Amino acid sequence: MRDIGDKSKDLRVVIIGGGPAGTACALASKRLAQGRRVDITIVEGKKFAQEQHFNQCVGVLSPPLPELLTTCLDVAFPSHLSRGEIEGYILHTGQETITLDGDMQPSTAVRRVQFDAYMLETAQERGIRVFSARAVDLEFHADRVVIYTENASLEADVVVGAFGLDEGTGALFARQTPYRPPQALSSVVTKYHPGSPLEEAAGRYIHAFLPDHPRIEFGAVTPKGNHLTINIAGRSVDAPMMQYFLSLPEVQGVLPNFAEAGKWNADDQQFFKGRFPCSLARCYYGDRYVMVGDAAGLVRTFKGKGVTSGILTGIRAAETILNAGITAEAFDAHYRLANRDILSDLPFGQFMRRATILFSRYHLLDPIVRAAHNDPSLHKGLFDAVSAHASYRDVMRNILKPRVVARIVREFVNVHV
After folding, report:
1. Could you tell me the pTM of the whole model?
2. What is the mean pLDDT of the chain?
3. CA distances for 190 relative to 60, 210, 226, 229, 323, angstroms
4. What is the pLDDT of residue 283?
């Protein structure tokens, strides 16, 4: 292993993936260099500029993301990309509906491809090289990593995987290292243009749905400037499942003018499919490699704040590489420890996910929502769970207070008496 303990030695970092996690790692590495020569290259085959690529991420930027950008990366929050503020959530569970407002600053809706382009352009402006190609193979040697792309080969001291759930790139690492990608849920996304001022028609709330269909874990309708973004997620959701979701009366009830075919835009009813992680990846770091964001599975179970998690883990990977080293031992001692907030919350998130699926299938969420109307702790717990503003550990603490449990039990009893 090449010695990098001497901070005067050059360091070559190649980052595969130019999304928020990859650019955050690059920008943080640049800031942490402190006079040391650090050569940073981002390998990205997608074209974010001119919106030539569609990203299935809904694109809601929530606190503490603005602070992360300004404080840790010295990047201005892109308010100019805003498609409107998100003030809260409206949760739909079978027969019940509840408005969930919090006391934190509003989130900002953006088009993810525009945000990705902004971050990548910022990296380029700061002297970080962006190599426009796809990685096609890897070789790990005692003193370097060779990254083969469609156009040329690159050499690095360490390679960072910021490729999301791209199966091709994940397979490259799986062939050369013990890395195994995280388990994933499928997601289908579409758009709808209401044909009227959106703020008047749909407000500033995200509508979250927990339907009882066994293949749909959750769905959402999000206001995005001149249109609504509609998404569903589950183990095997597809176009027919999206059509089913759009046919639900409670969903059509929040889509202004949906029944009027003449109101549809030419871009409406185009479906896009993606995936997002629902477990931790195996061996997501080792000698000369480390995964960040979705590629590592270091995200909240219900995919809350995926952009924030990506940027946060990208920063933490850069701190480990520059300050601790590029061995498996360095990543184990520093990177894993830095992510203990995410790692320690994963079991609680998995429990909440399974409980939510079970309760929604058997129509047991309605009494919980009714109880939340009159119980501040339960209301806060639901808000934190939907918005991802708090850990699942804290959510469970709010929901499982004896007084709260007693209120929920009374609602269950009232239903069956």
Report:
1. 0.92
2. 89
3. 16, 18, 14, 6, 43
4. 98
